[in-house]
C-alpha cells in the first residue's frame, strides 16, 4: 500500500517505530516530538494495531473547520473594491474599521482583501 505522508508524519513514524522496538523511551519521544506522554502512548497503540497507516492525518484533503463562508469573503472583496481599491491591505482594513467603527476578524479581512 502506498502512503502519502508529510515530513512531520514520517519523522513521527520513525520515532514511534523506535519506541515499539524499545530503542527509545516514551518520555524521551514526548520531548523530541513536543507531545504529551499520553499522546505518545495513544500513537504507539495505533502504530502497534495498524502500523504506520494510522499515523497519517485523517484531515488531509478536507476543508478547515475555521474557514470563513464564501459570502463573508465576497462581502469583504466587494467593500474593498468599492471603497478601498487603491489602498494596501492593512490600510484598507484600518480605514474600514474607522468607517464602520468595528474591529472584527482583523487578519481575515486583511487576507481576503489581498485577494481583491
From TrEMBL:
<feature type="domain" description="Insertion element IS150 protein InsJ-like helix-turn-helix">
    <location>
        <begin position="12"/>
        <end position="62"/>
    </location>
</feature>
<dbReference type="Pfam" id="PF13518">
    <property type="entry name" value="HTH_28"/>
</dbReference>
<feature type="compositionally biased region" description="Basic and acidic residues">
    <location>
        <begin position="96"/>
        <end position="106"/>
    </location>
</feature>
<feature type="region of interest" description="Disordered">
    <location>
        <begin position="93"/>
        <end position="116"/>
    </location>
</feature>
<dbReference type="InterPro" id="IPR055247">
    <property type="entry name" value="InsJ-like_HTH"/>
</dbReference>
<protein>
    <submittedName>
        <fullName>Helix-turn-helix domain-containing protein</fullName>
    </submittedName>
</protein>
<feature type="compositionally biased region" description="Basic residues">
    <location>
        <begin position="107"/>
        <end position="116"/>
    </location>
</feature>
<dbReference type="InterPro" id="IPR009057">
    <property type="entry name" value="Homeodomain-like_sf"/>
</dbReference>
